[in-house]
Design goal:
InterPro entries: Formyl_transf_N, Formyl_transf_N_sf, GART
Number of strands: 7
Organism: Devosia litorisediminis
Number of domains: 1
Distance between the termini: 20 Å
CATH topology: Rossmann fold
Shape: globular
CATH superfamily: Formyl transferase, N-terminal domain
Pathway: Purine metabolism; IMP biosynthesis via de novo pathway; N(2)-formyl-N(1)-(5-phospho-D-ribosyl)glycinamide from N(1)-(5-phospho-D-ribosyl)glycinamide (10-formyl THF route): step 1/1
Helix content: 25-40%
Enzyme class: transferase
Bound molecules: 5-O-phosphono-beta-D-ribofuranosylamine
Keywords: Purine biosynthesis, Transferase
Structural class: alpha/beta
Radius of gyration: 16 Å
Largest sheet: 7 strands, mixed
CATH class: Alpha Beta
CATH architecture: 3-Layer(aba) Sandwich
Strand content: 15-25%
Strand order of the largest sheet: 3-2-1-4-5-6-7
Length: 193
């Protein structure tokens, strides 16, 4: 299966997916990486791996729908079967999401349905949560609301800061995202649409 990844920044989850997909028995190949920020470090990493890259700034388009139409055209020019959101920091419109329904997944740094949206680590700490974690889920029009595929938990430790907690969660993100894509691309899971 052919996979496109959408990023906005660092791209460490993208790198984890690229690394996993290099295994000969992995059922997916990363064929393109699209960023909405030209300065995203992940674009450089992807290019170093010989993967096609594209950068599209939403501000250059008259509307979000037109921006998202060009994203879909770009992904379709790469002939992708699936789309992975990996730190893509734009809320996607319903038309784009519905176009890719059942074929687009996201990694979110919380144990959904807890802490949808931003600043998840600080919010978990502020609540005194004993555990925290991450979720790979199907993308649906409601933000961070699609069906979960895999989750991983980590303990919240005394003295944690948002950064220390984020780092502990990120290790798990890099483990479960490639595993979730493997399940999807090998046909072992599907969205109920
Ligand atoms: C990750 O924490 C991911 O869960 C969230 O944004 C961050 C992206 O990091 N959606 P990276 O770009 O994959 O390093």
């Amino acid at each position: 299966k052919r996979v496109g990844i959408l990023i906005s920044g660092r791209g460490s989850n993208m790198s984890a997916l690229i690394a996993a997909a290099q295994a000969p028995d992995y059922p997916a190949e990363i064929v393109g990486v699209l960023s909405n920020r030209a300065a995203a470090a992940g674009l450089v990493t992807a290019a170093e791996h010989g993967i096609a890259t594209a950068s599209l700034a939403q501000s250059k388009f008259p509307s979000r729908d037109m921006f998202e139409d060009v994203m879909t055209q770009t992904l379709e020019s790469w002939d992708v079967d699936y789309v992975c959101l990996a730190g893509f920091m734009r809320i996607l419109g319903a038309d784009f999401v519905n176009h890719w329904a059942g074929r687009m997944i996201n990694i979110h740094p919380s144990l959904l349905p807890l802490y949808k949206g931003l600043d998840t680590h600080a919010r978990a700490l502020a609540d005194g949560a004993a555990t925290h974690g991450c979720t790979v889920h199907f993308v649906t029009p409601g933000l961070d609301e699609g069906a979960p595929i895999l989750q991983a938990q980590v303990p919240v430790l005394p003295g944690d800061t948002p950064d220390s907690l984020a780092a502990r969660v990120l290790v798990q993100e890099h483990r479960i995202y490639p595993e979730a894509l493997r399940l999807l691309a090998s046909g072992q899971i599907a969205a109920l649409t």
